[in-house]
Design goal:
Helix content is about 70%, strand content about 5%. With about 650 residues, it is mainly alpha-helical. Strands 1-2-4-3 form a four-stranded antiparallel sheet. The longest helix is centred in the first third of the chain and has 79 residues. The protein starts with a helix and ends with a helix.
Length: about 650
């Protein structure tokens, strides 16, 4: 380790003076001088030895076979250690030395290094003068090559750019020429296409083919909507388009006229009846098929068929479903539909199906003409109105076939068989498709429909009973409570239970006293029992619906009877008395009506409670209220009569 390193590693006790700084500077200078001399010996006087010996140009020009220095000859310089030299000159333990004392030693050491370097240069086998001359020649040649390359670069850039610019100009010229040629070719192509379409139209007219003529004019108009650039500016384009439009309109007029000859209908409306006649002259001749194909190609067939289909639905099919109609095919081409105007008339389902069969059989004979693959007028009519027709038929006709009692429901399969046959018939005549929704799909909810129909029937029946005259009366009840005991097997527990029942609940509770009631009250109660008996034979959905309907009947009694018979209940005492007895009689039966219902429903799991006890007091209060009001009116009237007579 040098003295400098020792000094720097020691703790700094006091600042360095000028003499110390001078010492440090001398050490650094000496270190750099020695290291420079060592590098000079290793590299050699000509610079980088590796670069000199490996340059390919020198080998080619001079053909020099330079010898490599033996590594043993460099051992002296390589083993020269600058740090050891400095340690010999500067003693670590010596602190009071001066630069003037050390400079001669350093100079001596430098001189020694110079002498060693000179000896090395003298003893080396390399011709240093030749090496320097070769290096100078290489530098000059390199400079000349660089200048030549720069000149070539400039010449190449100038010539290449000139050729590129010339090529670009030629390309632009060719592109413009090609654009002009393409522009002209497109116009010529459009002119030729127009001429082709016109010729095809003339050929079609000569062959008396609407289809070929329509296709040619249609294609011409479609082509005229997207002409080539520049073609629309020519006079021939305007003339051709205008002429094609006129021809198109004339063709459509002729086609509509031919369609009108094949499909005609007439409606003669009167006060008592309306007569609708339909005349269809379709057949499988080439002329008819040609007209249908032409209408289809012109996109007008769907419009014509839709118009005819809507006429069938509104003027023929719907009246057959809703009115008294007679359908008669007078000839193979003429069909007459007579609609009688009757108030509140609704035809039976079998009459509707019979008339529809006659109509669709006639349509099948005339409209099932295959003018293109898997397409007939009958199929198109079915696509247009089959869904709406099916919904109307189900809603306004087939729903009414659902019975309102369990006995008729059990034989409803006969009706469904007839409806299924009619469904198959509609598929056969191609009015319905095989994958279309069946008209029997409403039977998927037969329980709900039957429940609604039964409920509606019983409500209407009950309301009709409530509107009847209250004066038609009958005797009901018992005059004395019977003392006959029940014929029950002797059982200690049973006897004990009966004794407790006799002590707590009087027998008279289960007997209604003899009195006069309206026959309507008994009829209403009979309707309730019929609903109960029918409910226990049906599914849970129907049973629940009928139970709610039964409760609704008695709630309806509270609303309808007092309102409808209001005048009689305010003026005639007999009416009030009968109405009071009716209410009491109904309330008496409702006390145990729920228990009877539950007994009949034994074994079935119900998710709703069954009971009518909550209606008992409501109906009793209804009769008591009207009786009280009438008695108060009678009392007031008697008092007024007494006052007026006194």
């Amino acid at each position: 380790m040098t003295e400098k390193e020792d000094v720097t590693n020691q703790p700094e006790k006091e600042p360095l003076d000028d003499e110390a700084l001078e010492k440090l500077a001398v050490e650094e200078l000496l270190r750099e001088a020695v290291q420079g001399a060592a590098r000079a010996e290793i590299v050699g006087p000509s610079g980088n030895a590796d670069t000199r010996t490996n340059h390919p140009t020198v080998k080619n020009i001079q053909n020099l076979q330079l010898k490599k220095i033996d590594p043993k000859e460099n051992i002296k310089m390589e083993e020269y250690n600058v740090d050891n030299v400095l340690k010999n000159i500067f003693d670590v333990n010596e602190t009071n030395w001066k630069p003037s004392e050390k400079i001669p030693l350093i100079s001596k050491e430098i001189e020694q290094l110079k002498n060693d370097l000179k000896s090395f240069l003298i003893s080396t086998e390399y011709d240093m003068t030749s090496i320097l001359e070769e290096s100078a020649a290489l530098c000059s040649e390199t400079q000349n090559l660089a200048e030549d390359m720069e000149v070539c670069k400039v010449e190449i850039e100038q010539e290449t750019m000139a050729e590129i610019l010339k090529s670009l100009a030629n390309r632009d010229q060719l592109q413009n020429e090609l654009t002009s040629i393409n522009f002209a070719l497109n116009i010529v192509r459009d002119v030729l296409l127009c001429g082709k379409f016109v010729k095809e139209f003339d050929d079609g007219r000569e062959a008396q083919s609407f289809t070929r003529a329509v296709e040619a004019v249609y294609d011409l108009l479609q082509h005229a909507e997207s002409p080539a650039e520049g073609f629309q500016n020519l006079e021939v384009y305007s003339n051709t388009k205008h002429t094609a439009q006129l021809i198109w309109e004339n063709l459509l007029t002729d086609l509509f006229t031919e369609w009108g000859r094949m499909v005609t209908w007439d409606i003669k409306a009167g006060t008592r009846k309306t007569v609708v006649t339909v005349n269809l002259t379709f057949d499988e001749s080439l002329i008819v098929v040609d007209i249908l194909n032409a209408l289809d190609r012109s996109k007008k067939l769907t419009e014509r068929v839709s118009e005819f289909a809507q006429f069938l639905l509104k003027e023929v099919l719907m009246p057959i479903i809703h009115s008294d109609v007679t359908v008669y095919d007078e000839t193979d081409e003429l069909m007459t539909v007579t609609i009688m105007h009757k108030q509140n008339f609704k035809p039976r389902y079998d009459a509707v199906i019979a008339n529809l069969r006659i109509l669709f059989n006639y349509l099948n004979n005339k409209l099932n003409v295959d003018f293109k693959r898997d397409t007939t007028i009958m199929r198109m009519v079915g696509i247009e109105i089959s869904s709406e027709f099916r919904d109307i038929l189900i809603k306004d006709c087939l729903i009414d076939t659902i019975p309102n009692n369990i006995n008729d429901l059990q034989i409803y399969g006969r009706i469904t068989s007839e409806i299924q046959e009619f469904q198959n018939f509609l598929v056969l005549v191609k009015f319905f498709t095989e994958d279309s929704l069946s008209i029997l799909h409403y039977l998927n909810n037969i329980d709900v429909l039957f429940a609604n129909k039964s409920s509606q029937h019983f409500l209407e029946t009950a309301r009709a009973i409530m509107l009847k005259d209250l004066s038609a009366s009958m005797s009901i009840g018992v005059e004395h409570v019977p003392n006959d005991g029940l014929d029950i097997k002797s059982d200690e527990k049973g006897a004990e239970a009966l004794n407790i029942l006799d002590k707590t609940i009087p027998k008279s509770l289960y007997f209604f006293p003899r009195c006069m009631i309206s026959k309507t009250a008994q009829e209403l109660l009979d309707v309730a029992y019929v609903m109960m008996e029918q409910a226990v034979q049906c599914s849970d959905v129907v049973c629940k619906k009928l139970y709610n309907t039964t409760r609704l009947v008695f709630e309806l009694y509270d609303a309808v009877v007092p309102y409808h018979h209001e005048n009689y209940l305010q003026t005639i005492p007999q009416y009030v008395a009968l109405f009071h007895n009716n209410c009491m009689y109904l309330a008496h039966n409702l006390q145990l009506f729920g228990d009877k219902w539950l007994v009949l429903m034994e074994g079935r799991e119900l998710d709703y409670p069954i009971g009518f006890v909550d209606l008992v007091q409501k109906i009793r209060d209804l009769g008591y209220k009207h009786l009280t009001i009438h008695m108060q009116q009678q009392r007031k009237q008697i008092l007024d009569n007494i006052r007026s007579s006194g």
